[in-house]
Amino acid sequence: MVASEMEPIQKQVNASIIQNSFAGFIIMIVAIILGYYIASLFTKPIVELKNITEHLAKGDINYKFNHESKDEIEVIAIAFNKLLLALNKTAEFSNEIGKGNYNHEYKILSDKDTIGKSLLSMRDNLKIAQNNEEDRKEKERLENWANQGIAKFGEILRSDANNMENLALNFIQNLVKYLDIVQGGLFVLNEENPNEIVYELKGAVAFDRKKKLQKNIALGEGLVGRCAFESLPIILTDVPDNYINITSGLGDANPTSILLIPSVLNNKVYAVIELVSFENFNDFEIKFVINIGENLASTIANIKTNIQTQKLLEETSFQREELSAKEEEMRQNLEELQATQEEMKRKELELTKLNEELQSKLNAQNG
User: Is this prediction's pTM over 0.90?
Assistant: First the structure.
């Protein structure tokens, strides 16, 4: 009876064990699947992060960490994407700097952004170096321009050193062209009359055409005379419309800027250079005209010296010829005088002889 009573219980126990074992197996399978799923949720982004990091280590920054899970991994993804964005902006800024675009905007990430600060410092240094190089090139260009001009006008002064008219016209024509302006005039000192010293317009150019004007400007008269009297440059800008009322040498235009430079040698103004432009004259242009003006004064002084020397030589030659003619005339007069004296002496001898003969006859008659 005991055995018969235990048998149903044993069956129930066995059935319970089987059920529990099956349930445990199911739970284990579910746990394995769930564990694998949970592990994959963490492992996949970590692997992706590892792969992106390896690309970053090779310098490849064209990636984005895509992860949205509302967990710690997403926080890491957001921070990592910020890093990638910053690196891309840094790369973009570096590329612009490499192209020479030193005005490209770049904002540092924070006060601790060492790389950003270094890039900005590099940009500023490169910008300074570029400006210095541009300044050097511009200075070199202006020096070459001035040196070439001085050589050019030196040749002009040498080639026309014996003719004032050719020198004046050739000088002012080339100066107007070299400065790329519209008008120019050269007024040369004329002191033939010490009581009326004037500056005579020897050469003038207007709009690249020879401008035939006859003008004599007294010392201290108008802009030209004032420039000569003060022996200082005169620069007029923003010239009013009534410019013609300003007593300028050329005086028939309404320019933007007028430049008058005295051509000085040993404190003596040998000429005044008047230049007219529709733009303001630069400092380097003014300095250039002053330099060639000094050379012009030396040439004009030499021409005047040569002219005076030639004039003295001609006067001396004339005086010598005149003296020679007078000497010849005196010689002829002397010869005529000597002939007259000899004739008078001969006649005196004849008279003396005749007188002696008459006296002899008289004595003979009385004896």
Answer: no
